[in-house]
Amino acid sequence: MQSLLRNVCRAGNRGAAARLLEFAAPVATQPPSSAIKHLRPCGFTPPTGLDQFLCVQNRFISRDGVPASSGFCAKVLMTRGLSTVGTAEVAEDEDDSSSPAVEHPPRIKFKRPDKTARHIMNILNKEAVEKVRTEREIPDVQPGCIIQMRLQVPENKRRESTLKGIVIARRNAGINTTFRLRRLVAGVGVESVFPLYSPNIKEMKILDRKKVRRAKLYYLRDRMNALKK
Amino acid sequence: ILWVSLHEQIRTFIQMRTNLKVVDNSGAKRVMCIQSLRGKKGARLGDMIIGSVKEAQPRGKVKKGDVVYGVVVRAAMKKGRSDGSEVQFDDNAIVIVNNKGELIGTRVFGPVPHELRKKKHLKILALAEHIV
């Protein structure tokens, strides 16, 4: 019964909650106050609307006598209860959606925390990428490009080293988009992975774009061409 | 050399029985690692190892069968840097040192990473052709 109530809390969806409560009401023989006390300390703090809802539920369940009829009454009373809950939750929902400054006109009324968090992370990622893009002009590096870039590394004594090489892989991950550069340094092949939006990269220039039919050109490791690698 | 999937080749540590190239003019050509002096799993870029010389030039400072110390200057395993970049070389190479860390040879060939600066192998950095 407690688990059912918890499911009701979490599902939040009108129809699902109705169905769950229909099953819950006949089962509700124990005092639901204990169930509610049990629910309070759980991390998912229900908004005040839900508290009201639970109280309503508490009230009508305690008034219950016969399970069969209570099922029907449960549905009616509970939908009434849910309407108040619905408005309360929408209000809280708007608070949350205004913080990332994005409007969602036909938004689902009931907030799902995991969905919202991922959504916020996506938005943060995009904002960070936009911020870097407005400061520096970053060309579109794709596998097969031959790139010349100027890198400033504070741990190296002399800054502004120039690297020239071919991009053999690119990994898209929002702000952490990295690309792999392969170059021949003093006769030895060196592969480096750089974050695309790193502030250490001062300038990037595309010299040439080779036609490749692959996203990751790891086969180039075995074919050491004499020219540009 | 491990293969996780068909595309990614993951190189691992330098451990016992690893063959390494010698890139200085101390006389040795190939060294087999017999002990890594740092790390439980093995040595990485910039660490010291103990090795046994397997192949040497006829007239050099070290001979075949000598037990020598070496500093790893090129590792096929990628090494992360503090700015988020990573670097990896195509082969494993060492420079022969004595147990205090001083170079035996007088020249170093090929590129070296600037991780050696932090490990205080400044002589190697000074002699290197190219610092990555």
Looking at the structure, the CATH topology of chain B is Ribosomal Protein L14
Biggest β-sheet of chain B: count, sense, barrel? 5 strands, mixed, barrel
Q: Which radius of gyration of chain A do the C-alpha atoms yield?
A: 29 Å
Indicate the radius of gyration of chain B in whole angstroms: 14 Å
Widest beta sheet: strand line-up of chain B: 3-4-5-6-9
Q: What structural class should be given to the helix and strand makeup of chain A?
A: alpha+beta
CATH fold group of the domain at 131-221 in chain A: SH3 type barrels
Helix fraction of chain A, binned, reads 40-55%
Question: In brief, what are we looking at here?
Answer:
Chain B: One of its GO terms (molecular function) is large ribosomal subunit rRNA binding. With 229 residues, chain A is α+β, with helices and mostly antiparallel strands. In chain A, 45% of the residues lie in helices and 19% in strands.
Walk me through the structure:
- The complex is a heterodimer of chains A (229) and B (132).
- Helix content of chain A is 45%, strand content 19%.
- Chain A is of the alpha+beta class.
- Chain A has a domain at 131-221: SH3 type barrels, CATH 2.30.30.790.
- In chain A, a hairpin with a 6-residue loop joins strand 2 and strand 3 (178-185).
- In chain A, helix 4 (48-62) packs antiparallel against helix 5.
- The longest helix of chain A is centred in the middle third of the chain and has 32 residues, at 67-98.
- Chain B is mostly beta strands and 132 residues long.
- Helix content of chain B is 8%, strand content 37%.
- In chain B, the strands form four sheets. Chain B has a five-stranded mixed barrel with strand order 3-4-5-6-9. In chain B, strands 1-2 form a two-stranded antiparallel ribbon.
- In chain B, a hairpin with a 5-residue loop joins strand 7 (79-80) and strand 8 (86-89).
- Chain B is globular, with a radius of gyration of 14 Å.
- The mean pLDDT of chain B is 88.
- The A-B interface holds A 153-157, 176, 178, 185-195, 198, 200, 216, 218, 221 and B 7-9, 74, 78, 81-91, 109-111, 114, 117-118, 129-132.
- Strand 4 of chain A pairs antiparallel with strand 8 (86-89) of chain B.
- Chain A: This is 50S ribosomal protein L19, chloroplastic.
- Chain A: Pfam families: Ribosomal_L19.
